[in-house]
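Late entry, written up from scratch paper. The run itself happened at the end of the previous shift, but nothing got recorded in the book at the time, so transcribing now.
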Amino acid sequence: MIRGEQALWRTEKKKDTFKMSDNNKTSNHNGLLRFTTAGSVDDGKSTLIGRLLYDSKSIFEDQLEAVEKASKQKGLEVADLSLLTDGLRAEREQGITIDVAYRYFATPRRKFIIADTPGHIQYTRNMVTGASTADLAIILIDARHGLLEQTHRHSFIASLLGLRHLVVCVNKMDLVEYDESKYREIVSAYRSFSSRLDITDITFIPISALNGDNVVKASKNMAWYGGSTLLHHLENVHVGADRNLQDCRFPIQYVIRPQTNEHRDFRGYAGRIASGVFKPGDKVVALPSGRETRITTILSGKEELTKAFPPLSVTMTLDDDIDLSRGGMLVRPNNKPQQSTQLDVRICWLDDKPLNISTRLVIRHTTQEIPAKITSILYRININTLHRDEDDLKVEMNDIARVTIKTATPLLSDSYRNNRTTGAVILVDPSTHATVAAGVIG
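Output as recorded:
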């Protein structure tokens, strides 16, 4: 999503580094986990990731030397591990995260892609970017301050974006003398708040990212805590069941017609599988035309596959030459997405200008790009109470609201709860090409 379209592209481009095939998976390997970190400003997100990388021996000597040198220039006696992720000069000077920083590391049990997102409220869009492709979110809470507005906001965004796994790390326990009662107080407050979120798997871990307590190694300072360390939990959390393999959706990105003597009659439909499992011989329906046909072959490069599933990018050939192009979709005859020009969408408004329902926009959804406009604002969400505000309908930057969107042609969509790919949209200002909102359908 959003500027995250570029971030997402970079993440997927990096996929080759972590390519996992059925042949090289072992029984004790849990595959790839994408997770994002969030929380308020200076809760220690970058330090936590730096500690994970350092204690799991996932950084190079020259990287550590550069961090130690930069730390000495700042007058610090020990290495500031947050500098491992704070890559921009402005970030290092201010000691905060501004952009989304992606990091990659691996342990013998799993491979990881981390999105370190900013805590400042003006960078909420970056948190949306990081969470949009994540399997799990880590919410950091400063043990001294407890739950803050950004804790509520980031937790709600994680719920809004369909993350099913949340780890709440109560950080800086060393600054409250590893007080168990303080930790229990924060856990109780968060449980009360999160009861209104659509997240069922929430794990709480008391940590000190600065000193490494309960990050990679169990803390001797918190013998009262009987749970796992953060890394152990990340290595073992099961996310495979989160993938939708029931609803077959293949958005068409490009029609391949080589026009060479060798491939004179070849017509292939390329794209990334959004959900479901496809096999040669399967009966499919081409949308929006509604024509039925069968899959002849599924190609990954020059290799023919016996089956394909998300997030593979493939080329399919069909038994019949049918009207199908970018923006179309292949689905099963008895399992079709919604086709509608009117949508109820929960959005996070990202533009610095308030939402104006008279403004013409473009909605981007899978490979579709359609003129659209917001026709009504149903309500705003009070981020602290999660209650609906139906009286004050002014939607400004970082506000979350439910709106009705009208599109020029039918959108091929699913509820976001069922399908994170076909249930997500972004809204773009056609005059500036700026992303003004990210939203989920249903």
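The longest strand covers residues 368-381.
(Scratch paper discarded after transcription.)
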